[in-house]
């Protein structure tokens, strides 16, 4: 079993003295190639901080993060940025699309930044938009798209650099039920295609669509469940979920 992402003794502290916050407090994690892992916990338990550490968007106070066998916590800024651009795809709650770029340009940018030349980058971006069901919206600006469509563009963008791992931070947090199901189905299809995926969410129903669900409290992992029965069946159980 090859491990794509590994964390050991991961900690992140903010502030000091009586204001000290241990946002992430000693996390160990192995994510195997092709696995979908959900980390679930209440607001403020440290999920976003953890995801930022795992993707090299932030530096830990202590501990190690390894992506494809290479440490990312102790490399210089430029090397870290390169690893992010080429190895990690991010999906955020609030989409973070470039508003002045069209859907296809948003996706293309990620491929360009990873080193593809312009023509292949555009072709790849168009294929990805087709994969997320938005080929007919390729030339739309984000403002002309629904929340669910924007998040699907964001997923396509996350795949633009053909990342080793996709890290999703509360990806359905701004979506209604129908769009939530769309995005979860999309993640399921990525999983079927072998994509490694980590999703953090406060929503137990969303977490329950993963193969492995880890519960987080006060910066630490407190429980882990391996879920069986196939994601499609679990997604089916979500149909009819209330907002
Ligand atoms: N830059 C910061 N400076 C100080 N404290 C911070 C900072 N970022 C996060 N924290 C604190 O760290 C803790 C964990 O925050 P984090 O955003 O990771 O939680 P979360 O589980 O993602 O919450 P939510 O679901 O509400 O987004 C919180 O107590 C938060 O206030």
UniProtKB/TrEMBL annotation:
Highest taxon of the lineage: Bacteria
Alphabetized Pfam families for the sequence: ABC_tran
Domain ABC transporter: 5-243
Single GO term (MF): ATP binding
Keyword ATP-binding among record annotations: yes
CDD domains with a match to the protein in the record: ABC_MJ0796_LolCDE_FtsE
Record's protein name: ABC transporter ATP-binding protein
Keyword ATP-binding attributed: yes
Sorted UniProt keywords: ATP-binding, Nucleotide-binding, Transport
């Amino acid at each position: 079993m090859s491990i794509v992402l590994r964390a050991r003794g991961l900690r992140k502290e903010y502030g000091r003295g009586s204001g000290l916050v241990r946002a992430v407090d000693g996390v160990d994690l192995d994510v195997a190639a092709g696995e979908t892992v959900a980390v679930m916990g209440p607001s403020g338990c440290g999920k976003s901080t953890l995801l930022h550490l795992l993707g090299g968007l932030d530096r830990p106070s202590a501990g190690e993060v390894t992506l494809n066998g290479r440490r990312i916590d102790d490399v210089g800024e430029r090397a870290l940025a390169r690893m992010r651009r080429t190895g990690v795809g991010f999906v955020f709650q609030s989409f973070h699309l470039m508003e002045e770029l069209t859907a296809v340009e948003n996706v293309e940018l990620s491929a360009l930044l990873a080193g593809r030349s312009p023509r292949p980058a555009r072709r790849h971006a168009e294929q990805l938009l087709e994969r997320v069901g938005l080929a007919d919206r390729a030339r739309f600006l984000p403002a002309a798209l629904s929340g669910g469509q924007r998040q699907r563009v964001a997923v396509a963008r996350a795949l633009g650099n053909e990342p080793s791992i996709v890290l999703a931070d509360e990806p359905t947090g701004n979506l209604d039920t129908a769009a939530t199901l769309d995005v979860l189905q999309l993640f399921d299809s990525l999983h079927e295609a072998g994509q490694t995926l980590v999703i953090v969410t406060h929503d137990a129903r969303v977490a329950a669509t993963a193969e492995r669900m880890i519960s987080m409290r006060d910066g630490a992992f407190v429980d882990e469940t391996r879920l069986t029965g196939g994601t499609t069946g679990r997604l089916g159980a979500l149909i009819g979920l209330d907002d």
